[in-house]
């Protein structure tokens, strides 16, 4: 199985004004040192205790608990399914963020600590003021900022619909990426029961079983990898598969999600779910007909698709705006609730 290639890097990007061409791109890139000047990164370079103390400075006394994902030492940071894929090898607890920070610092000295991971926690809700103290420029975009805190972890390869800028601010991360077209070779698990909301690869990257997952060797021929230190960031374009590893006893990542589409657009995953219910099990000949219908109205849609219909009569075939999207959503709900 051939090894992955390095993710392309840039050393010239300033956090104050990230280039539009970079943020709108469809290829991953590592931005070395782009947030190295952040106070959070400076605190982390002084040690895990300093990083935790810096985060505590933004905690609200009345803040709600965060959701901590906790697994026994034997999972070694691989938050995953149980043996029959009908449950998980971890539990979730609601605890104050300060308790999480103190626990991580205490367990850092343990030879076999529990696996602890606070995932995708909204920065503005739990750490108000953090963003203004650690600014980054996205131009007209208004991304959602989330923080990820934990010890050593291995998060299975998955996709996200939004574009993603992930900034390592404490500890170290290894990121392994695959182009979207590697879906078949990554052996994706259930669509509905998932560890964190997104379908994941069932392959253990630390010990891939090529007898059970032989096509994973082909996926690795397309893989790209980078190791990130505090201050480094990586741009992960929409729908690129990414496997994330926390390599230190105390890791903090801040990421930003945004979409290059109007807010009225729903997630395409909903369309996939409906297609599974309405198209997948049709007789083969009928399924091919619907493939042509989708190509005509969706994947190959252009000015000619509805060009023969007067503009005022195009209905759902007109360009979508907020009002038309609301009408379409109402119509779908009425049909689904029959």
UniProtKB/TrEMBL annotation:
It comes from the Bacteria. Residues 116-273 form the JmjC domain. It holds the Pfam family Cupin_8. InterPro entries: Cupin_8, JmjC_dom. This is Cupin. The lineage of its organism: Bacteria, Pseudomonadati, Pseudomonadota, Gammaproteobacteria, Lysobacterales.
């Amino acid at each position: 199985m051939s090894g992955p290639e390095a993710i392309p890097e840039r050393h010239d990007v300033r956090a104050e004004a990230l280039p539009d061409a970079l943020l709108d791109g469809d290829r991953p890139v590592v931005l070395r040192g782009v947030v190295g000047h952040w106070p959070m990164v400076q605190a982390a370079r002084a040690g895990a205790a300093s990083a935790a103390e810096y985060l505590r400075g933004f905690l609200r006394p009345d803040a709600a608990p965060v959701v901590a994902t906790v697994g026994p030492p034997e999972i070694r940071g691989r938050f995953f399914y149980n043996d029959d894929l009908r449950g998980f090898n971890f539990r979730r607890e609601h605890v104050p963020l300060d308790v999480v920070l103190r626990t991580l610092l205490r367990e850092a000295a343990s030879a076999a600590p529990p696996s602890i991971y606070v995932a995708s926690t909204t920065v503005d809700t739990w750490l108000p003021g953090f963003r203004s103290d650690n600014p980054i420029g996205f131009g007209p975009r208004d991304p959602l900022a989330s923080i990820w805190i934990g010890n050593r972890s291995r998060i299975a390869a998955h996709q996200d619909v939004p574009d993603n800028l992930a900034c390592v601010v404490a500890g170290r991360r290894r990121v392994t990426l695959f182009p979207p077209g590697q879906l078949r070779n990554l052996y994706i698990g259930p669509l509905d029961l998932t560890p964190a909301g997104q379908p994941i690869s069932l392959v253990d990257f630390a010990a891939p079983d090529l007898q059970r997952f032989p096509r994973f060797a082909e996926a690795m021929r397309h893989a790209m990898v980078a190791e990130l230190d505090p201050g480094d960031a990586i741009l992960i374009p929409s729908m690129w598969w990414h496997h994330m590893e926390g390599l230190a006893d105390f890791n903090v990542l801040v990421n930003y999600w945004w979409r290059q589409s109007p807010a009225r657009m729903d997630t395409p995953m909903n369309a996939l779910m409906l297609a599974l219910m309405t198209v997948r099990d049709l007789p083969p000949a009928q399924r091919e007909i619907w493939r042509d219908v989708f190509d005509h109205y969706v994947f190959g849609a252009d000015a000619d698709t509805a060009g023969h219909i007067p503009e005022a009569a195009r209905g759902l075939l007109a360009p979508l705006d907020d009002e038309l999207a609301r009408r379409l959503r109402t119509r779908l709900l009425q049909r689904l609730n029959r």
